[in-house]
Amino acid sequence: MIGLVLAAGAGRRLRPYTDTLPKALVPVIEPEGGEARTVLDLTLANFAEVGLSEAAIVVGYRKEAIEERRADLERRYGVKLTLVENDKAEEWNNAYSLWCAREVIAEGVILANGDTVHPPSVERTLLAARGEGRRIILALDTVKNLADEEMKVVADPEKGVRRITKLMDPSEATGEYIGVTLIEPEAAAELADALRTTYERDPQLYYEDGYQELVHRGFHIDTAPIGEVSWVEIDNHDDLARGREIACQY
Q: Which of 51, 136, 153, 171 is the most exposed place for a label (fewest CB within 10 A)?
């Protein structure tokens, strides 16, 4: 099992930072006299914390910024890095981005969105949930009060995920998918095919729409509740401020 980070997006709502950087490299911790840490730093640190020694990063927008830091990130976190290029990062959404990493997924991965600040307890929860035929396990926040923008999930204890979409009444949801998934090698081929179907239908769809495609095909997707955990998806400057508050707790 290796780590996988989706870091190809432009993050235009975080300008001016993202005029020159991909969203995953926006500073989250800026200590006085120290070196800034980014969402990518935090995610790689999480991977190292749970014993992963390799990770792949899907790059696209401003990919050279990640390429320049690759050796330093490897030294800092002891994780060997492979970069996977998304050639349509500024045109298409992340269903295609995850499909670009289909060969990596075949090794079995913990997938983390490049804009999610979260503690390593999330990865530990997913690893602890492995076994008993589970092939894809979503990290689910069942505590947070939900609104319209969240990636909401309806899950059944026996049947697994039934719906995953932002376009749902929050009162119907079991919880929010936080952007971290454990994917076993046995799920790779079926997931890749579902992702291809998804982006071919509409290049602007999310990889979570690929998960929904799998569900429609009868694939069982599991969830693992993360408990009462502080985390945030960084989409804008308010989220960034929240991410900086949270990151200082880890």
A: 171
